[in-house]
Amino acid sequence: MGKAALIAWREIRWEIFGDRGAVLRTGFFALLPIFFVLSSRGNTLGGSADLAILTLALQSALIPALSGVALIASTFTQEKENGTLVPLLAAPVKDMDIVVGKLLGMVGPVMTICAGSLAVYYVLGSVLYGAARLRHALPFEILYAILVIAFLYLITAGSWVLIVAAVVRTTRAGQQIAGLMIGISAAVFGLLGVTAARIADGWALVGLGIAFVAADIVALEIARRVWRRSEVIGRL
Amino acid sequence: MIDVRDVSRSFGRTVALDHVSFRVEPGEIVALLGPNGAGKTTASRIIAAILAPSEGDVLVDGISVRAEPDKIRVRCGMVTDQPSLYERMTLRAYLAFFCHLYDVASAGRRTEELAALLGLSDRLDVRLGAFSRGMKQKVAIARGLVHDPPVLLLDEPATALDPETARSLRSFIVSLRARHRAILLCTHDLDEAQRIADRVVVLYRGRVAREGLTGDLRADAHPRFVVSFTGDAAAARDALARAGVKAEPTSAENGYAALRFDADEPGTTNPVVLRALLDDGVRVITLAREERSLEDAYFAIVAAAGEQNG
What we know:
By secondary structure, chain A is mainly alpha-helical.
């Protein structure tokens, strides 16, 4: 696990904070939810205010998570394309440490941004819609559930993207397919999220979380198989 | 010590290695030669425990690559033909990262030692993306040496190096041999192999076409002679053709004309050549055996292997 942490730290320090493009892309995804909140005009929320507040909270956490999926796609395809995977595989590091390290390196910063974005939304929402209304619509348990869902979405979509990254040869192809997956998954999960939020005061979101966990297990198992070093080297 | 035992490796229907066996002893440099696609890189990746063999086994210092691949990786240092660096990192951070991956005790000190060894001390805090191709290759070499491995796998290590740096790299590799390292050098550079390799393994379409001491392989090539003379080279060549000896012009020193010819039986052929030239009025200056290069031997081996494979 120590080596997974080392790989994760390298990703964060040098591939995210060392890449202006990655910082800008992630920053764009972090600012986008704030733009949606500001443009929603709190005084027109009407009778479905709680649902609107909840939906905006969900997007505040999930939109930054989308950037994480793109980051995961590019980190693996770039390693393949640049040949940097070979020295890594030649080192005494377990295959799982490489996959976990790279996922952690992407998931860690992105989840921090998701949490930050949700916090900014909460503050902004308190001003726009009133603190009491926000506290009622977004109790602590729901905020926590939203973050868990963002995390599970990131891992699920990231794992599926990881499978794609093992098969495609170029970063460009990887990013194109990742973009497609982000679009489809955002639409599907968004729809499921809004539907779940309507049921039992939002507690059906827990069911959505369980569905994510099931998808995670399947995706991570496939990812583990396709990222075995012999399989990867055979495709280089 | 590397002991490759009857190793085969397939990718789908493509057979990359077909029952390959050879050894590299400590204190020995073995050149692994062969055309593109012969299986050199696959062989080195199997030895480095990056790829598993489909059949057979590789022992490194007696440890099986199948049974304990992690222990093999600790014993092998690999230098790839492309530097393949994380170009956003500085040299210091990059080497320290690999030191940590290999559990090197004092990463900082080792990083500075390697940078000094390869003449990069003044670039320690520069991002690798700003390095020249030659400097990047030096960094790739340093990466392969971070854990001071007993076995070195060098895949075209001198690619893109200027002649001066390539020469110092060769000296460095030879110095590692003196420190009892087992070194496998995969290369297309036959001149480099001839200069530093003790033994040569030639792969052709995944099989060992020939293995032997570098000197023995060169000596096995058909004996070739060069005769230098004053006069018309074309007329001299015609005279040899009439005597049944096929010759081709070559350059000779001191402004003399020269012809080169093969002579499997010099005791028979050379007197015929001399007689034909003298009878034609050619003033012969020298007749000497041409030293055969590894390149000559290599092409002969590959041609023979190609004929055998149809």
